[in-house]
From TrEMBL:
Residues 45-59 have a biased composition (Low complexity). One of its GO terms (cellular component) is cytoplasm. This is histidine--tRNA ligase. Residues 112-426 form the Aminoacyl-transfer RNA synthetases class-II family profile domain. HAMAP family: His_tRNA_synth. Keywords: Aminoacyl-tRNA synthetase, ATP-binding, Ligase, Nucleotide-binding, Protein biosynthesis. Gene3D superfamilies: Anticodon-binding domain, Bira Bifunctional Protein, Domain 2. The lineage of its organism: Eukaryota, Viridiplantae, Chlorophyta, core chlorophytes, Chlorophyceae. Its EC number is 6.1.1.21. PROSITE patterns: AA_TRNA_LIGASE_II (PS50862). It comes from Chlamydomonas incerta. Belongs to the class-II aminoacyl-tRNA synthetase family. It catalyses: tRNA(His) + L-histidine + ATP = L-histidyl-tRNA(His) + AMP + diphosphate + H(+).
Length: 511
């Protein structure tokens, strides 16, 4: 996006993937242009990276095959598609999203976590750090009308840190918080990656040991099990930042280069090895050191790692303890030791982990670890033990879809109420109100419809009962109730139907 004050959507047509819960690649004009990314909210963004511009220029996609659509005429139909990289949530997709978020929230509640939220728009300084992080290059950031530098949050952890700092010593520790929020990154779109996504975070504040990481990993595994995935489908790669730190120290790499090396090493699963080596050489790392470091990152056994780092290695001790706790929880089969996992964000300090599909067809499902020094980077006088993870909504949906585990939640109501005469609409409205007050979900038919339509409509909504308000029955204070599951019909008084709740009185026409 170009820097500048913008509001609303631009006129170009886009074709969005029609897969459920998807906002896949689409065709767009070759030049990036202004556009608002939010209903009722206006903002601007910085100029995109070269890769993002190339992506914006019409790379081949499933829907448009790289075809560039022309802007609609000013007087013609408005652009009905959402901005590139974003999604609409019509009712069928919203039901799926609610199901997914419900699973996130249920797991969090099972572990005793409290929910929090923070503004999507945050101060830019929360996200700008000095490690060459890719995320800082993907910010939707701009100067607001008050001259303040702000950004749409690309992740939730810095907002959590701000809240913890805000509460200060009034926050009882340990604190266990979770959030489900929207995040924004201007990046090249691929399968499971778009420019906005929702993220589930669980974080523990105030626990210095790996017991916190074990609890968080147990929550992730519980979620996977709840949605039907097994350890054969997903592996959680685990390492410790101190592993790479120890290896770099052995090879004489200065401490000030550690964060930058982590960012580069994090690209091992995204770039060919020679490209990673090239970036390390550009950082001033010697060729022999590169071979030794990358060789150490190929180890897949804790005993071998202990042999390399020595018997007093803090990293090895923490990893062994984590595996012991995992055995106690019963999720050790999900864990995979992989020292090449370092995570690209600079604030991680200890345990790091990523969950990935075993087939390797998708990018990381979720990731996290320990970040004890984050609050200090925001000005806190001391480090505070913190650990957490972020779990996006996009990759998990792709994986569940691939495994045939993605549900298709339907729109369901308990009752459908149908007035059989226009003059009985006030009576039908009163019955619907009484049923709703009693806790039932009720669809009130608002137009004159034939009985055949009413039956099909009730079936489509999965209703258990069809309530017919007819003239002769209403004169006796009754209605006809059809039990759609038992294929039975009976006449019931209004009191019997509503459990004693009286319908709202109809207003006088002469009032």
């Amino acid at each position: 996006m170009l820097r500048g004050e913008v509001c609303g959507r631009g006129p170009s047509a886009r074709t969005r993937s029609r897969l459920p819960f998807s906002g896949g690649p689409a065709s767009v004009p070759k030049a990036p242009r202004q556009g608002g990314f939010g209903r009722g909210t206006c903002w601007s963004a910085t100029a995109p990276s070269a890769a993002a511009v190339a992506d914006e220029a019409g790379a081949p996609t499933k829907s448009g095959e790289g075809k560039v659509t022309q802007p609609a005429e000013r007087k013609g139909l408005i652009d009905t598609q959402p901005p590139r990289g974003t999604r609409d949530f019509p009712p069928e997709d919203m039901r799926l999203r609610n199901w997914l978020f419900g699973e996130f929230a249920a797991v969090s509640a099972a572990f005793g976590f409290e929910q929090f939220d923070a503004p999507v728009l945050e101060s830019e300084e929360l996200f700008v750090r000095k490690a060459g992080e890719e995320i800082t290059e993907q910010l939707y950031n701009f100067e607001d009308k008050g001259g303040r530098r702000v950004a749409l949050r690309p992740e939730l952890t810095p907002s959590l840190a701000r809240l913890v700092l805000q509460r200060g010593k009034q926050l009882p520790l340990p604190a266990k918080w979770f959030a489900i929020g929207q995040c924004w990154r201007y990046e090249r779109m691929t399968r499971g990656r778009r420019r906005e996504h929702y993220q589930w975070n669980m974080d523990i504040v105030g626990v210095p040991g790996v017991e916190a990481e074990a609890e968080l990993l147990a929550a992730i595994v519980m979620f996977f099990e709840r949605v039907g995935l097994t350890a054969a489908d997903v592996g959680i790669k685990v390492s410790n930042r101190k592993v790479l730190q120890s290896v770099l120290t052995q090879y004489g790499v200065p401490p000030e280069s550690f964060a930058k090396v982590c960012v580069i090493v994090d690209k091992l699963d995204k770039l060919p090895r020679d490209k990673v080596e090239e970036e390390l050489r550009a950082l001033g790392v010697a060729a022999s050191t590169i071979d030794g470091v990358l060789g150490a990152l190929q180890l897949r056994d804790l005993d071998a790692l202990g042999g390399l780092l020595g018997p007093d290695s803090e990293a090895v001790a923490e990893l062994r303890k984590l595996w012991e706790l995992a055995a106690g929880y019963g999720f050790q089969d999900w864990l995979v030791f992989d020292p090449s996992v370092v995570r690209g964000l600079a604030y991680y300090t200890g345990t790091v982990f990523e969950a990935r599909d075993r087939a390797g067809a998708l990018r990381a499902i979720c990731g996290g670890g320990r970040y004890d020094k984050l609050l200090a980077t925001f000005g806190a006088p001391d480090n505070t033990p913190m650990a957490g993870f972020g779990f996006g909504d996009a990759v998990i949906v792709e994986l569940l879809k691939e495994r045939g585990l993605l549900p298709a939640p339907g729109h369901r109501v308990d009752d459908v109420v149908v007035p059989l005469d226009g003059g009985l609409r006030p009576a039908a409205a009163g019955i619907a109100t009484a049923l709703r007050r009693g806790g039932r979900s009720v669809d009130l038919v608002l137009e004159a419809k034939k009985m055949k339509w009413a039956f099909k409509h009730a079936e489509k909504l999965g209703a258990s009962r069809l309530v017919l308000v007819g003239a002769s029955e209403w004169e006796r204070g009754a209605v006809v109730v059809k039990d759609l599951a038992a294929f039975e019909q009976k006449e019931m008084t209004v009191a019997e139907l509503t459990g004693g709740a009286a319908p709202a009185p109809a207003a006088s026409a002469s009032a």
